[in-house]
Amino acid sequence: MLERLWQLTELQFRPDEQHHHETLFTIGNGYLGTRGAFEEGYPGETPATLVHGIYNHAPDTLVPELVNAPNWLVLKIWVDGTPFGIVQSTENHMRPPQGVIFGYERTLDMRRALLRREALFRAQSGAIVRVQFERFASLADVHVMAQRVRVTAVEGNPTIEVESVIDADVSNQGVRHWRSDATTIADGDTTGVEVTTAQSNYVLGMASRLLCDGAVESIDDERRPASRTRFSLSREQTATLTKLTTVYTSRDVPNSPLEAARAKLDEATELGWDLLFSAHEAEWAEYWDTADIQISGDDEVQRALRFTTYHYLIAAPRFDERVSIGAKTLSGLGYKGHVFWDTELFIVPPLVLSQPQLARNLLMYRYHNLPGARNKARANGYEGAMYPWESTDTGEETTPQWSDPGADGTRIRIWTGDNEQHISTDIAYAVWLYWRWTGDDEFLRRYGAEIILDTAVFWGSRVEKAGDRYEISQQIGPDEYHENVDNSVFVNRMVVWHLETALWLVDYLHQHAPDDARRLVDTLDLTPDRLTHWRDVADKMYIPFDEERQIHVQFPGFFDLEYVPVPDYTPRTTSLHAILGHHRIAQTQVIKQADVVMLMALLGDELGPREVLLNNWHTYYPRTDHGSSLSPAVHAWVAAWLGLTDVAYEMLYHAVHIDLHDNKGNVGQGIHAAACGCVWQAVVFGFCGLQIENGELKTQPNLPKHWTEVSFRVYYQGQLREFTVRNPEAVPLSQ
């Protein structure tokens, strides 16, 4: 095993890239995520620890957001009185000259989910030390985080001071979510805080302990309790210190999260770093056993693919079925931690095949939030369940209606919460995919069927009769550059799929689970008239199609808009939306992201003959801006499936590096979760051609010409299956 293909390494500190790298070097365990900020801090840093489900709606803000928890990372070090740090503040000009960093290296070991950092530092006294940091968020016990620091005297006999802090004086980029009346503990080597969100009343308790050989004193502070130790080193001597931190919230325990955190801290202390890490490493080995894809012939894509897989795995809740993965995972404050369709169509599928229990947890989040979806349907005059475009802990719609003011003070109306209604079908599709691959009949009977059927009830009430056909007006499809269109082909065709699936499901339940069938028929009012209406809608839905060109039309009138040759706008590092402006781009044929191509990815050959699908591709691919991170991976998937291997690889290379290369320029706000999940699908479903055919799995590979083979493992109907697809005519990349 080549360890370098499991590692992401930074060899030089660049202050202007640190927000990007804070995101890349996030650690997490499905309960929380902690950005890769430094223990000692630096000017302009954006540290954040985000815990699933802890939302708050602050005054004077439009919507609730995921709350930045107290910062457990803080470990400050002084060498002969000189503060260790990569970047030192110069605001106090009376301060004497600071130390010097001679070398720096940071590595994320994705196989073990361990972050390491090392620096060679010279103090003002002339003493030189090597400082090594390590940290992990335990996958074996999600309430435990661990840090270890080693200080080695390279030159001189320095005196070292180390201060361990829990910093509860935190905000979401200036927005305060925690009440000011925090409870703190400072008791020798142990510190703790308990804080409460101001509006939602979630309580969080966090406790830390500094373990070392010397004496430890405490520093009491109402927001930043600390423990401090002091010792001296002889030349070539190394001191090792361990900081253990535990966290609980009122979502986990009914009373006193701080007491629970202190009890867990005692357990973790008994185990110590080595045993804690061994258990953590073993859990990650099980994750990678099924989640990893091995590519031979392309080391760069191999490492990048592991990076994307790592990031959706660290965000996937292990034991909690009332939370879900936001569009920026737990790695940043982007999109305020809200949950979109990204989860169901882009992240759930790879988890269904590699970690089905994690996928089930995410779908159960939607089941538990059916009341919110029903509330939204009612509020808009419809029946059934209409899922929100953006969701948090309550299941209610949390999409803001207006954007933040731009540079010129203007605000843009956000229509997605009103009219991007395809999310209800996206969720039903994910439920269906989960059941097809897992055969989890109990989930389907008790939970999944209700989601599929009640969202079908919504669509049955939402469609509009227009003469001898049905239409759907005022929709936003995946292409969000074109808002409030009538008869989006993506929406209309997926609604047909949805209603046909719901009708099949009613018959299936009557045959195989009659008690559940009766329960759902009664609860959801699935009368014979309603089912007849569904059949009529499915048969007579308007599907925009150009018979002459043999293509699906994104929406009627699309080709009457201004044609803009997207390929001519190169090179560029920004979207055409930013170049042309919000109002003009809506009058063009420029597509934000895969729309008809997304429909092809979901329905495959069900959508039409291969000739039509190729016509669709050649029509829409050159019109697509890829203004969303979701788009390149979908195009890679579909192009590979269609046998367009060269362009498929180009799109995959783009997709798998979106975060690593910061192609969108906003990775500092968090990882692009959907892109991470979709590149896995692009490789497995696209390049390897994995599919279910007549109840059996088969592959139909179209590998890039330089890939020699691809190996992966998936669960199907409860059994773990292993696949290796080969390219006997592979041509290695030139060195």
Could you list some keywords that capture this structure?
globular, 21% strand, nine-stranded antiparallel beta sheet, alpha+beta, five-stranded antiparallel beta sheet, 735 residues
Brief write-up:
The chain has 735 residues and is of the alpha+beta class.
How are the SSEs placed, and which strands pair?
Elements: E1 7-10, H1 18-24, E2 27-28, E3 32-34, E4 49-56, E5 65-68, E6 75-79, E7 82-83, E8 100-109, E9 114-122, E10 128-137, E11 144-155, E12 159-165, E13 183-187, E14 190-196, E15 203-211, E16 216-219, E17 226-232, E18 238-249, H2 257-291, E19 294-296, H3 299-313, H4 342-354, H5 356-368, H6 370-379, H7 416-419, H8 423-438, H9 441-462, E20 464-466, E21 469-471, H10 489-512, H11 514-524, H12 528-540, E22 545-546, E23 551-552, H13 576-580, H14 582-585, H15 596-603, H16 610-620, H17 631-641, H18 645-656, H19 673-687, E24 691-693, E25 696-698, E26 709-716, E27 719-726
Antiparallel strand pairs: 1-8, 2-3, 3-4, 4-5, 6-7, 6-12, 8-9, 9-10, 10-11, 11-18, 12-17, 13-14, 14-15, 15-18, 16-17, 19-26, 20-21, 22-23, 24-25, 26-27
Helix pairs in contact: 3-19, 4-5, 4-8, 4-19, 5-8, 5-9, 8-9, 9-10, 9-11, 10-11, 10-12, 10-15, 15-17, 17-18, 17-19, 18-19
